[in-house]
Amino acid sequence: MKGTLSAQLIRKLILVVLAYAIVQLLISVNIINDYLQATLTTICINIILAVSLNLITGFTGQFSLGHAGFMSIGAYTCALIILKNPTTYNFLLGTLLGALLAALVGFLVGLPTLRLRGDYLAIATLGMAEIIKIMFINMDKITNGPRGLSGIPRFVNWTWLFIFTVGTVLLIRNFLKSSHGRACIAIREDEIAAETMGINITWYKVLAFVIGAFCAGIAGALYASYFYFIKPDIFGFLKSVDILVMVVLGGMGSISGSILAAILLAVISTLLQSFSEIRMILYALILIIIMIFRPQGLLGSREISLSAFNRLGKFFAFEKEAK
Amino acid sequence: MPLLKVHKLTKSFGGLTAVLNVAMELKQGELVGLIGPNGAGKTTVFNLLTGVYVPTSGSIILDKGDAQQELQGLKPHRICKAGVARTFQNIRLFKDLTVFDNVRIAMHKNVQYGLLSSFLHLPSYHREEKRISEATMELLKIFNLDGKKDEYAKNLPYGEQRHLEIARALATSPSLLLLDEPAAGMNPAETAQLTELIKWIREKFNLTILLIEHDMSLVMKICERIYVLDYGILIAEGTPDEIRSNKRVIEAYLGEDVGDV
Prior knowledge:
By secondary structure, chain A is mostly helical. Chain A has helices at 2-28, 34-59, 67-84, 88-113, 118-138, 140-143, 158-176, 179-189, 191-196, 201-227, 237-250, 255-271, 279-293, 306-322.
């Protein structure tokens, strides 16, 4: 049993390294050019954002509309640090600090607001994100106000993107497969029953919120250090809705769904770039069509796993033999 | 000293007093019934005992021999940790989760690994998860649900959903089990089977059980003592035989005697 377990682990590890190496190769021979690299970065950042919001909204059942607020905290923290002292070490420090600060704000905001439910919580988190945005606008001396920070040195490359994306997704996946993660899912299912079964619902709601905020902080830091420029408007209400759309589209309660949706939406919006006038209309139309035919999201609450590919492989192998 | 001692328990919702000065004592290992007409406040008593409602006044003391604990005002999860588990009148399973997960989640209070281990899946995680899985399967076997462990809870037939709720409550390893109308909606054969099951789990898990039930065949057969609640007030207490012939109980259920007919 143990032998097959570690064999599985090794196989997964090889796949992960392979995925990294292939993209790295494509970048070095310039098949993935600068333009595609920007898309790739957007995809990775969106994966982190969508998976972490899914932890809060899809798995723990707490409807949050403030994810972009946490993202902005990470972005500004990291940007300010590397603007002052641009080294890789400081970039990592800034990312960590940004994430921690976002988590702290998540904790402070979550403690009182997570008593609210449904729409009320959504409005409270929305308000929180707006307050954060207005704070960044008004702290003129530090954040340069509404004009934003520009000329942020770029430290994010494919390696860092890959490490942070795979890292956060793995940590959240592991968490959800543990008793603590199941406690969060139980809260989504039935708060009263969960509480009566010995689950401290306040603690786990706040915990999910803090973990989600931490990851959003990382995503923000990566954003700042790739795109050179940040301003408060980027992290407004629309960004929060964007992230929520990915979660709902992929399926509430499915990590692989969120990943799929993040990739799909980035690809769609890249492809639509050439129809710039009707781009947003088409984008909205696609979303509406998907929601009509797949109201539970692309994957519902299911996950795509390696074993699914194995089954697929076996299926095709069988087909060949039959021939 | 009794396992559970309830003293002058009162709950008012605004101007309405749902439960007034209820006093109860449950000895270790007893199987006690709580009956009364609809709206008498039975479920309110359960909600007070499990912390879903905070009592307006009165005390609830759980004494497990080695430790005495006041339960009034504690949060439900703390009361669960103290050793009180319950089922619900209108089944409250985690409907969209599997039978296995329903029971596994209730093992949460005894899980021995921390957050770090849950993020990184350290050895303690694997060891504990294995233990939890085995314990869960053992419980499911007792309730004949092991064959349906991957079924969604909402897809189980009604009777099995009731069984699953009891299994889930037992997974929290309680010393006091509160059953809220466990036989509701069951046919006589199922009720008879449930009666045997309740007796059996009491022995097996060394439980003290308090149950609310309308099915008198079940209550009279297995309860050693019965409390009768009417309009939030305890009107009688005694053995099934005493309760059956108690005048006030008959009045509460059938209305007052208006003389010879």
